Structure formats: C-alpha cells, structure tokens
Design the sequence.
C-alpha cells in the first residue's frame, strides 16, 4: 500500500463548513443508490488538504437521529473520494471528570440503537468486518492534538453509548450505562462508525460534552435548551480544531490497515452474489468487487 493525499470527510453540524471558510468552497449535490443523503456536500481546501463536509441532520437540523440516512451519507462521502472521516457530535457525560465544555476523542462504542439499518451488506452479499477497534488511532490522535492545540480540554479515549432517541435517557438507563463502563452518551455515532469501517474509511470522533446525563440524582434531567446553548459555545472551538487539523496533517497520507478492511470480509461466494446489491456497492466496496 502506497502513500497518497489526504481528503478529509467531516460529518457535523449544518453551519460548520460555512464557519470554517474553506478555500474554493463549492456546494455539490451527490446522489446515492441507498437513497437521499442528509443534503449536499460542501467541498474545498484548508491549505493543501481537501475537505468534504456533510451536515448530518441536514439544513436547519431538520432530520432526527433515527431518520438520518447513515448509509447514503457514508456512500456519498466515499463517492467524493474521501480517505478519512472525522465526526463532530454533541454528547452527554456519564463521568464527573468529563464536564460540559470539554471534548472527548471517543475510541469505543456501545450500540443501543434499534430502528436503523446498520450495514451496507445483507441477503445476497454477506460480509463481516472487524469492529474491535472502531476508531482509527492515527486520525483520533491528530484530531485530539488539533483540538488541544486550540485550547480545548480534551479527554483522549472514552466509550460512547449510542441510544435511539429522540428522547434523552431515564435515570435508570443512565445509571445502567455508567455501570456498563460507558463514559458519554449520544444518538448519532451508530451506525455511522460501523458503516465507515465497511466503506474502508478510517473514522475518528471528537465529541463535545454539552451536559451531564441524568445520573446525578440531585440535579434536574437534561433539557434541550441547555444542550443547544453549550453546542453553540463549542461550535467555534470545533471549527478551529478542524482548521488546525488541516494545517497539521503530514504532507502525505501513509496507508492504513482500515483501507483494506473488506479484503477478507466476504462470506458469499462470487457466483451467489446479488448483482443488484453488487452494483449499489460500486463506491463502498468497488475495490474488492470489481
């Protein structure tokens, strides 16, 4: 595997790309065989590095966590030629030391979602990728370094429990998740991280703590207004971190083992594969299906 140029895909809030002021920014509509993505992508450069931004919840945050078309989003980023994915997300904290305003470079996930399609593969083309280490350590380190470099308090490592939502958790659930070893809680990282691995895209998440989840008995439960207020304050730091990441990446991108995650993943014999599904996967798995 040889070195190549970086092309960073960013999944985050609807105002993120415009706030960063990309050089040569263009908004482009990209279609997917998996349905409509959350919206058009915005492409441009930070220095010599190409970036492609996609608003996870669409313009004006109109799409709920359960209704995001995670497969289409990941598919269009792959079609745009992205080499790596960074995800920016708001989270609740399950640990005292991870305070509102802090950021967490998440490295593990517990998936409690129920109503979402979690894989590109299925009947007619079965594949199993390793998800033991769902986050790319190289990319996560670079992202955490960038956030710390712009003054953020960054926790390196943390387990994110993904819930279906759109409601926040009950106190009983919050205590249970703490007992499981989860550190933070959110609604969007799964199946996003799963699909990134199936698309052979290294994935890292910088999660922004907006509140303490409701495990603290002497405090009121989570209120959306409080979450949105902290999100607004953190947005500028997130934009600065992305710009710093673009300026600090190594000149060339050395190959990652995740680039070839599908090489030995297919269980379905070639003659038994569904041609329609194979055609739909021309971007995600074209490297191994051609």
Sequence:
């Amino acid at each position: 595997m040889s070195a190549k140029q970086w092309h960073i895909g960013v999944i985050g809030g609807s105002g993120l790309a415009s706030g960063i002021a990309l050089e040569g920014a263009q908004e482009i509509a990209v279609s997917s065989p998996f349905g409509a993505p959350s919206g058009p992508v915005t492409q441009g450069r930070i220095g010599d590095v190409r970036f492609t931004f996609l608003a996870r919840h669409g313009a004006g945050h109109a799409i709920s966590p359960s209704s995001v078309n995670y497969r289409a989003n990941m598919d269009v980023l792959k079609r745009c030629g992205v080499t790596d994915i960074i995800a920016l997300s708001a989270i609740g904290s399950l640990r005292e030391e991870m305070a509102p305003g802090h950021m967490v470079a998440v490295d593990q996930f517990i998936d409690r979602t129920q109503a979402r399609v979690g894989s590109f593969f299925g009947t007619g083309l079965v594949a199993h990728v390793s998800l033991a280490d769902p986050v790319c350590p190289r990319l996560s380190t670079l992202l955490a370094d960038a956030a710390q470099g712009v003054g953020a308090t960054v926790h390196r490592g943390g387990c994110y429990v993904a819930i279906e939502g759109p409601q926040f958790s009950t106190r009983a659930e919050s205590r249970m998740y703490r007992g499981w070893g989860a550190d933070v809680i959110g609604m969007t990282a799964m199946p996003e991280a799963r699909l990134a691995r199936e698309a052979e895209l290294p994935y890292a998440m910088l999660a922004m703590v907006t509140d303490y989840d409701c495990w603290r008995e002497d405090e009121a439960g989570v209120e959306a207004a409080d979450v949105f207020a902290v999100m607004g304050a953190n947005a500028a730091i997130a934009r600065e971190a992305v710009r710093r990441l673009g300026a600090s990446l190594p000149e060339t991108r050395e190959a990652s083992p995740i680039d070839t995650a599908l090489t030995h993943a297919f269980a379905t014999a070639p003659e038994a594969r569904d041609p329609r599904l194979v055609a739909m996967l021309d971007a995600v798995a074209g490297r191994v299906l051609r």
